[in-house]
Amino acid sequence: MMKGVIRVELFKILRQSKTLYALVAIFIIEGFVLVSAYYQGTEIIDLLLANLKDTFEFKGDLLNGNLIIYMILNSLWFHIPLILMIIVSGFLTSEYKDRTIEAVLLQPVSKTKFIGSKYLVSSLFTLLVVFLLAISTFGISYLVFGKGDLVVYLNGLNFYPTEEAFWRLASAFAVGTLSMLFFSLVSLTFAVLFKDATKTWIVSAIFLVCTNLLLKIDFDNSILNRFFYSKLIDSWQYYFYYEIPYEKIYINMSVLFLYCVFVSIAGIIVFKKRDLLP
């Protein structure tokens, strides 16, 4: 029965026009960021290497696909989660609006299976979006700008040869996927709580903005600074340290995964206890 519910949810997502619009919007944003990264990249390189150029001679083009991918990584972790939160929350709020949720639950489908399938399908959708984003980002960047050494200023000025830059960037995308998944699941839980699309979108946007602000705040508490959810969403950046803190990355990912599980369980429990009508 659960497999059948999941298939139905997948079918509904694929049939919704807003799913296509979401993918198109993401790639349009990626295109704007790509163009912006190209023009800003030269300025950033000149700024980073201003003092070194007087001492060293640099050969090759440092404004290459690897640098563009890195700049896209830094630019998209606000735009993409915002779109994902709007679309994923709509998987449930649209059911409330159209009152199809009542018709579905008149069938021999439990509330737990229904909402559980929503969380599972939302997770699959998020993974698909990030995968497509990664493939298009790497493909377009390398095709248009080529490969080359990556220069990054993070805890100092670091240079990575093209082969090393590739796996660092790919690993960063993989780790960042968990952050995207967290935001998607949070938005679905907001949809459970508020039921209305507009309210859910506003709260989701506020949550995303506050999360990015909290990321920069020092709580003056070692535990909060280490394990509060907002301190975990940029773990992908550690792959651009000269010495990668693998243990810290694994711990951060494990804790963030537990946050995802907690948010999902909380949403399922609330959904089971609340009335269906908005």
Set out the fold topology.
Blueprint: H1 2-15, H2 17-48, H3 65-98, H4 100-105, H5 111-145, E1 150-153, E2 157-160, H6 162-194, H7 197-214, H8 222-227, H9 246-273
Antiparallel strand pairs: 1-2
Helix pairs in contact: 1-5, 2-3, 2-5, 3-5, 3-6, 3-7, 5-6, 5-9, 6-7, 6-9
Could you characterize what this model shows?
- The protein is an all-alpha fold.
- It has one domain (2-272).
- The chain contains 9 helices and 2 strands; from the N terminus they run αααααββαααα.
- The protein has helices at residues 2-15, 17-48, 65-98, 100-105, 111-145, 162-194, 197-214, 222-227, 246-273; strands at 150-153, 157-160.
- It has a two-stranded antiparallel sheet with strand order 1-2.
- The longest helix is centred in the middle third of the chain and has 35 residues, at 111-145.
- The chain is globular, with a radius of gyration of 21 Å.
- It starts with a helix and ends in a 5-residue tail after the last helix.
Give structural attributes.
74% helix
Which H/E pattern describes the elements?
HHHHHEEHHHH
Strand order of the largest sheet: 1-2
The main β sheet shows up as: 2 strands, antiparallel
Structural class: mainly alpha
Mean pLDDT across the residues is 82
Rounded to the nearest angstrom, the radius of gyration is 21 Å
Q: How many separate helices?
A: 9
How many structural domains does the protein architecture include? Answer: 1
Distance between the termini: 26 Å
- Are there runs of 5+ residues with pLDDT below 50, and where? 55-60
Number of strands: 2
Relative strand content: under 5%
How would you sum up the global shape?
Answer: globular
Percent helix: over 70%
